[in-house]
Write a sequence for this structure.
């Protein structure tokens, strides 16, 4: 299982990077989302996979038992998920705004538009 | 740190301090008339004062780092003063060149000082003299003096770093007088003199200085006779004189050091005088071209007298102080054990050429008939002609009565360079001997040259042929190449294309990781740590992989967003399988929202277009896949490592006992790492405000035009 | 999308989802749940309503601007964090009531803090979604 998960993480990284290398702004942002998912999964994987033992103290106890899923990476990923929501919504709106202003989602054309400004 | 404002007044500092303040006072007086009515006069005085303070601080500092700071300050104030006419392009360029050269020297000075401070363990120059033996025996000695020489040569315009000085003459004449002949350029000399007792006396020190100084004085003197602009002639003759000083410091005997001390004073007096005279000529006639000027004595006698006096001192004609200086120079060269003849001949040659130059500046404009064009020229304000006349008079008075400066200034200065020097006695008349003969030869040679060599444009043209090889052009060539290289480098790496940045970073990272993987990774996974795979999980994984592949290949944007949603839900299921209910819930909710968002926005955006050809896609694909593969390998490798669970253990034991919570993840978020969460919700707020601002603000006119 | 079935379903779903989100928020300290996910569920409830009845109705229903939720939530979180200072304890020390309240359970600064998170997340999500849908 860990092996397959590791492969999936690799795949998420690869597709994320590949999309980020495209000229389209939309693809860039989708690539960013995939990369974020990949990172979350990687942290999760490295925290150790435990089945059926969430890090929740049983009602009768005051401490966690011996085998349980690691809560620290989970807390980390939870934060990351919520933050990436903010990041993604900002990025997607940025795309929209760019499209409204420049009428293209081609990064090369956006780039040359900047160059023109510099000439003034 | 040991970096203090430690000041020390000894003979050498006193000599320089007197020069700075004395000539400084005259220059200020001169400026008040010369720059009268200038728009930025206040600024000019400010720069000049800044320079004066910096220069005084430099010669009085005992701490090497304080000295360094003042050293740099003189460079900076010089930059401002050279570029004072900031509307002239040539002026700006000269300012930049001089700052570059002297600033470069500053770097080396700092390096040299750091090394010296490190070796001796003190930053006080006075205390360093005690460690002189240690320094001279140290293996880094050569490096130190190379650094120190580069610094001194750049400041004091020694070949091949001399080329900034003629350009610096673009500055107003008071500046040229003050900074670029009398004081600032002597900073390098001061540095060498100051460190003579600490680092000097070693063969390589002496030989380098003698050779560089000797070459510079002949080279520059030779150049000076072909120049037609008064200021340029003076610039090159200044370089030559500085070469002479370096040459004398290089000889290093007590006679040579005495000659250097006297010559510093002599040179400051006559060169400042000549510069001031040039300034007056320029100011009144509007030209500095030597072949246009003649007969000016008829309209400005006092100036002509000042020029004559300065020339006499320069030429070393008795009874001037210059005569004493020149005598001492020849004497010290003659008394050497090695190569006395050659070195003396070099000194005589340089002096002859210098004499010619000084006649050009001090006599030529005043002699002969007065052209009609200058009939209207009249004697300027007294504040202009009194300073040069005063300087010239002092040159003669000191020659007649050298005792005035002998005990109070010259002797202490010599002693601070050479503590064991024998007692000196300056006198004008030594009787008929070889030295007097040499002086006569010099004067004769100079006069002969003057009458045989008429100034004309031809010489300058002839000289310009060698310009391609001059250090200045080499330096400009180098800096241009450097700029081209920087431009190329920037275009290559900082080209503004995000994907190229990503590509470069990822490729580099991949190369590093791959190298590490080949050398250290074992490619082994412990079967005991692997959890079994159920059919439900298998299905989810398959869906996930399919969704990823579909996402990359789909030509439709909505399909891509849907695939993104599927990926998110699959990850959510993985969280469910492996005991992370909180994550699963959050991932589910966020994923839903994100998909809604993307659909809302992308609905109105253009269709996907494939912009790049298959070759680029193949390249990017390979880079991405390789990187992903490395991440997989890395992840598995990390799993093999034993992990420390101390933090986890702490939370497991204390989350209920201390924080009264049973959901450990939640306890971490709201209690133990509460501040992080606080910052996080702040960031979220900022993102929301950003979104609001981006969409709600109206497009302004400029944007619409685009 | 404004189908009658959808509208009717939403009428029931909105209060249910809101209740559910508060339930998730409250149980967060003992069982899976918490302010983040609770806030997002509440946001989804309102988004659903907006899809069914249109943004204007949702805004009317909300009464307050979603944007004003963000500072309110932040202030609540900060307040819960500095509350211990008044008792001479370091910042963010957990304070708890001695007796649990029925239904809600034990109340403490941690819950207050989580409530702040809940409100901020709700405000952020709604602000973003509303802004985008209005500008489409």
């Amino acid at each position: 299982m860990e092996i397959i998960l590791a492969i999936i993480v690799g795949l998420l990284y690869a597709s994320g990077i590949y999309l980020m290398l495209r000229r389209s702004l939309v693809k860039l942002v989708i690539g960013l989302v995939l990369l974020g998912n990949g990172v979350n999964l990687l942290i999760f994987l490295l925290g150790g996979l435990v089945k059926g033992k969430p890090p929740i103290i049983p009602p009768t106890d005051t401490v966690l038992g011996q085998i349980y899923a690691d809560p620290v990476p989970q807390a980390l990923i939870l934060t990351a998920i919520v933050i990436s929501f903010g990041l993604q919504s900002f990025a997607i709106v940025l795309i929209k705004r760019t499209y409204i202003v420049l009428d293209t989602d081609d990064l090369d054309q956006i780039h040359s538009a900047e160059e023109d400004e510099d000439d003034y | 740190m040991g970096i203090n404002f430690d000041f020390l007044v000894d003979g050498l500092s006193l000599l320089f301090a007197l020069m700075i303040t004395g000539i400084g006072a005259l220059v200020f007086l001169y400026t008040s008339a010369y720059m009268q009515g200038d728009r930025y006069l206040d600024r000019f005085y400010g720069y000049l004062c800044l320079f004066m303070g910096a220069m005084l601080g430099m010669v009085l500092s005992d701490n090497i780092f304080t000295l360094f700071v003042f050293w740099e300050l003189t460079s900076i104030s010089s930059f401002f003063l050279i570029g004072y006419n900031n509307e002239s392009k040539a002026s700006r360029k000269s300012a930049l060149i001089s700052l570059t050269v002297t600033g470069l020297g500053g770097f080396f000075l700092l390096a040299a000082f750091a090394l010296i401070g490190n070796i001796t363990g003190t930053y006080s120059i006075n205390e360093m003299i005690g460690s002189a033996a240690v320094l001279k025996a140290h293996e880094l000695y050569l490096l130190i003096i190379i650094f120190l020489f580069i610094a001194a040569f750049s400041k004091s315009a020694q070949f091949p770093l001399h080329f900034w000085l003629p350009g610096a003459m673009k500055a107003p004449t008071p500046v040229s007088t003050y900074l670029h002949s009398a004081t600032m350029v002597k900073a390098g000399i001061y540095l060498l003199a100051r460190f003579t007792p600490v680092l000097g006396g070693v063969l390589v020190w002496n030989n380098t200085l003698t050779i560089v100084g000797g070459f510079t004085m002949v080279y520059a003197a030779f150049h000076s006779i072909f120049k037609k602009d008064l200021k340029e002639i003076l610039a090159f003759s200044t370089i030559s004189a500085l070469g002479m000083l370096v040459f004398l410091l290089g000889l290093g005997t007590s006679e040579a050091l005495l000659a250097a001390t006297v010559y510093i004073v002599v040179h400051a007096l006559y060169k400042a005088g000549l510069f001031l005279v040039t300034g007056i000529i320029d100011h009144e006639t509007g030209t500095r071209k030597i072949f246009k000027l003649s007969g000016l004595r008829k309209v400005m006698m006092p100036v002509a007298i000042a020029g004559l006096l300065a020339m006499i001192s320069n030429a070393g004609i008795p009874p001037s102080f210059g005569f004493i200086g020149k005598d001492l120079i020849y004497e010290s060269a003659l008394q050497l054990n090695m190569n006395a003849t050659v070195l003396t001949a070099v000194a005589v040659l340089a002096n002859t050429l210098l004499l010619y130059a000084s006649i050009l500046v001090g006599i030529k404009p005043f002699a002969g008939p007065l052209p009609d064009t200058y009939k209207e020229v009249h004697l300027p304000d007294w504040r202009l002609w009194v300073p040069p006349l005063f300087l010239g008079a002092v040159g003669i008075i000191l020659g007649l009565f050298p005792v005035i400066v002998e005990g109070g200034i010259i002797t202490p200065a010599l002693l601070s360079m050479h503590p064991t020097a024998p007692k000196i006695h300056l006198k004008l008349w030594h009787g008929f001997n070889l030295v007097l003969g040499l002086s006569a030869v010099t004067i004769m040679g100079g006069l002969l040259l003057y009458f045989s060599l008429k100034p004309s444009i031809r010489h300058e043209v002839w000289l310009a042929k060698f310009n391609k090889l001059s250090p200045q052009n080499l330096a400009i060539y180098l800096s241009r190449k450097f700029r081209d290289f920087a431009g190329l480098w920037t275009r290559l790496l900082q080209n503004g294309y995000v994907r190229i940045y990503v590509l470069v970073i990822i490729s580099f990272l991949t190369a590093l990781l791959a190298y590490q993987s080949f050398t250290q990774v074992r490619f082994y996974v412990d079967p005991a740590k692997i959890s079994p795979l159920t059919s439900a999980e298998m299905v989810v994984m398959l869906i996930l992989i399919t969704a990823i592949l579909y996402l990359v290949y789909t030509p439709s944007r909505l399909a891509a967003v849907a695939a993104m949603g599927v990926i998110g839900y699959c990850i959510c299921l993985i969280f469910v399988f492996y005991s992370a209910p909180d994550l699963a819930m959050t991932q589910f909710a966020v994923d839903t929202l994100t998909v809604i968002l993307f659909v809302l926005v992308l609905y109105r955006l253009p269709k996907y277009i494939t912009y790049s050809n298959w070759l680029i896609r193949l390249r990017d694909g390979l880079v991405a896949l390789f990187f992903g593969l490395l991440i997989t390998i890395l992840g598995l490798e990390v799993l093999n490592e034993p992990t420390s669970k101390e933090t986890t253990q702490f939370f497991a034991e204390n989350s209920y006992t201390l924080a009264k919570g049973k959901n450990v993840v939640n306890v971490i978020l709201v209690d133990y790492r509460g501040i992080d969460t606080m910052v996080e919700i702040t960031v979220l707020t900022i993102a929301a405000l950003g979104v609001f601002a981006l969409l709600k603000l109206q497009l302004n006119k400029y944007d619409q035009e685009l | 999308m404004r189908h009658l079935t959808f509208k009717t379903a939403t009428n029931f779903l909105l209060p249910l989802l809101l209740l559910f989100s508060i339930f998730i928020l409250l149980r967060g300290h003992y069982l899976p749940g918490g302010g983040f996910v609770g806030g997002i569920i509440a946001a989804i409830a309102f988004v659903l309503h907006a899809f069914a009845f249109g943004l204007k109705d949702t805004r009317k229903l909300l009464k307050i601007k979603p944007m004003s939720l963000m500072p309110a939530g932040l202030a609540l979180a900060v307040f819960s964090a500095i509350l211990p200072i008044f008792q001479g304890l370091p910042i963010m020390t957990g304070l708890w009531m001695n007796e649990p309240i029925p239904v809600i359970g034990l109340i403490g600064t941690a819950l207050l803090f989580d409530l702040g998170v809940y409100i901020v997340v709700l405000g952020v999500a709604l602000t973003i979604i509303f802004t985008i849908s209005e500008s489409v």
Remarks:
- Residues 113-120 of chain A have pLDDT under 50 and may be disordered.
- The two ends of chain A are 59 Å apart (CA to CA).
- Chain A has one domain: 2-119.
